[in-house]
Amino acid sequence: MLASSHRFLVLFPCATLILLLTCLCSPSPTRAADAPSSDKVMEYRALYAMTVLSFLGSPDAAAAVMHLEILLKKSDVKDSYDLVVVGSDPEGIAAALSGARNGLSTLLVDTRPELGGLMTQGWLNSIDINYGPDGEILNKGIFEEFFTMVGGQSFDVGRARQVFNLLVNRERNLDVLLGVRKIAPVTGTAADGEAYRKAVAGIAVSGPGGAYRLIDARRVIDATQDADLAAAAGVPYSLGMADFGRGGRFMAVTLVFKLANVTDADWRRLRRALNRDGTRESGSTDVSAWGFGEEMYSYVPADKSIGTRGLNLGRQRDGTVLVNALKVYGVNPLDPASRERARRKALAEIPRAVKYINAKIPGLERATLAGAAPELYIRESRHIYGEYRLTIDDVLENRDFDDRVAFGSYPVDIQASGPEPEFSGMVVGTPEQYAIPFRCLVPLEVENLLVVGRSASFDSLAHGSARVIPVGMAAGEAAGAAAALSLRKGKTFRQMSASETDMADLQGKLKQQGMDLEPFGDRYKPDIVNDPRYEAVKFVRRMGLVRAGYDNDYLLDEPMIEACFGTVLSTAVRQSGAELEEMSASSLREDVLRVADAASILCRCLGRQMPRDEAYEYLKDAPFWNSYVDANDSEALVNHGAGYMLVKDFLDWAMVERAGSEDPVP
User: What pLDDT is attached to residue 49?
Assistant: First the structure.
């Protein structure tokens, strides 16, 4: 890797040549009407600066172009468009760019005052990258274009705003309407074979004064974080963790805050401390750092509905540092009042957390609070139902699909929904590479509509991986191209999703746009799928009851703990709807699980309280004991694999027995 000074000497002439060619290729200003506008000249200067700084990568160097602000163009909004994209998060921007580049008259509309959504309003300045098995970045196309221009995985929020503005400004087919008060779907009907379905025919937007304006659209893409337009149009969905038995619970939300008074020397001290940490959960670069999990987990908030995680830090070009660490529990992301309460709680807690950081984190002893993001970072809300719903098995079995339009590989990161003993979060596993089917973007029951972003048709556990922005931007790019293809072919999205020819045409177009969608088949199928215990692993995994972590190790051959077995069994009873008794975790021991212990716990589920030896005699001849358990020895150890099999087989047996008898017996 070249040093920054050497890179500058090599790349400065290249960047200068780019600028000169850009100017030479612009219309010759022989007439006033042909002269580049001042905004366009500023864009050329900023593009030149970004080209250099993408290689320099230093906050100090980036400060040299802070004055080069790229203003978003002003659009003369029309009454009708080929494509309307609702939501200006990165996913929506990718969809709008793709639609416009495919020749569609396109409108990008949002209630926010600027482009970028979670990145610019929520200050989420680090990108969760999907790396392939060989270490390559899986998401190409428009995401790669943005990634290069913004300067990499951790970026300056202001620079991201400029990049988004620049990308949108370049597209003549793309109009922008921001800062509207409300956006609602306008629906009609559309033919689907011999049937007619509800269809989105446009949107109604209201300005600050409240007056509505109707805008017709031949196709619509919902890129809002919460699938608001789709829900209003009648698309079915689940909420939060309800689809795996935790109704009313959502991942914690975060308010990112900003620290000032962190010098270069301070940052070097912080990095040295992380380098000595020795854990894989810690690391740093010149512009980002992550770690200090032990220190932050020891923080005791004043508000019990707030928790902390390891620090995720991002340096900005003005010298400040963004901090993603605070978690607020019990927030209904669809209730404005609940979101506002969460924000007030976080704002009250942050000064106390900063004092703790001053005392515990090397390099941040003198850091001072400098503000908080305008918008909460909300990880989860709706999960729509589409023509296909991505599952946790799809993700962790590294499944490919014939209608692939994006790839993912990020760990299945399920954040906590509350403090202990509430669900405390986990990494369910880490995929090698899986595909996102186009069908996940096609909602049930409503035509002319696609949904992209974290609220697309993913189960909530699968969404723990698929929710990341690069996947959403790839899906957005695919949606924009699909809108153009559907209009050219005169087909609905649903009809296209069922056609191998149409999907091949879509993939061909996306490859032309720079995306990599090569099939990989069963190349990355994990070895565990051949383990006889895997069906039981899937059974408990689908309920969020097992974690394999970053190493995909389910510890199947390790001895199970009695309390763990009881908790898994009791939770599985509740989530499966079986009419059996639940038990309190406090009544279970932290000792290793033996056959007689398992029998005692199973008897309690059947409503029978008896000593462990009697419970063993009562159940030892039952058909649910498996070959991984020596049921003839009451003191034999039960490992995790056998324990998961026992839970699954016991529930299957008990529900059949209960259906035919009030008193199930072996």
Answer: 54
Q: Which residue in 602, 582, 580 sits closest to 646, CA to CA?
A: 602
Distance CA 240, CA 37 (A): 48
The Cα–Cα gap between 600 and 581 comes to 13
At 580, is the pLDDT very low, low, confident or very high (cuts 50, 70, 90)?
Answer: confident
CA distances, 241 to each of 29, 143, 462 (Å): 59, 29, 11
Instruction: Say which residues have a Cβ less than 8 Å from residue 646's Cβ, sequence separation at least 6.
Output: 565, 598, 602, 624, 625, 626, 629, 638
pLDDT score, position 319: 95
Query: Can you say how many angstroms the Cα of residue 617 is from the centroid of all Cα atoms in its chain?
Result: 49
Give the model confidence (pLDDT) of 18-77 as tens digits.
444 444 333 333 333 333 444 554 555 555 555 444 444 444 444 444 446 899 999 999
The answer, yes or no, to whether residue 357 has pLDDT greater than 70, is: yes
Q: Is the dihedral of CA 642, 648, 653, 654 positive or negative?
A: positive
* Single pTM value for the model: 0.89
Q: Which candidate, 586, 628, 577, 620, places its Cα nearest to that of 602?
A: 620
Question: What is the residue type of 263?
Answer: T
Backbone torsions φ then ψ of 428, nearest 5 degrees: -65, -35
Mean residue pLDDT of the chain comes to 89
pLDDT grade for 662, boundaries at 50, 70 and 90: low
Tokens of residue 225, six digits: 């974080």
| Cβ proximity of 618 and 608 under 8 Å | yes
Structure tokens that stand for 199 in this block: 């269809």
| 168, 169, 172, 178: CA torsion to nearest 10 | 60
State the average pLDDT over residues 274-287. 87
By the 10 Å C-beta count (0-12 exposed, 13-18 middle, 19+ buried), 75 is classed as middle
3-state helix, strand, coil in the chain (%, to 5): 40, 20, 40
pLDDT value for 18: 47
Q: In this predicted model, what pLDDT tens digit does every residue of 385-434 receive, in sequence order?
A: 999 999 999 999 999 999 999 999 999 999 999 886 667 789 999 999 99
Which is nearest to 39 in space by CA: 166, 220, 152?
166
Closest C-alpha among 245, 304, 283 to residue 539: 245
What are the distances in angstroms from CA 112 to CA 88, 108, 109? 8, 11, 9
CA-to-CA distance for 640 and 142, rounded, in angstroms?
A: 44
CB 460 within 8 A of CB 382: no
Burial 377-403 (b: 16+ CB within 10 A, else e): bbbbbbbbebbbbbbbbbbbbbbbbeb
Cα gap 50→144, rounded to integer Å: 15
Distances in Å between the Cα of 614 and the Cα atoms of 597, 601, 611, 653 are 11, 12, 5, 20
Residue 18 CB coordination number (10 Å): 16
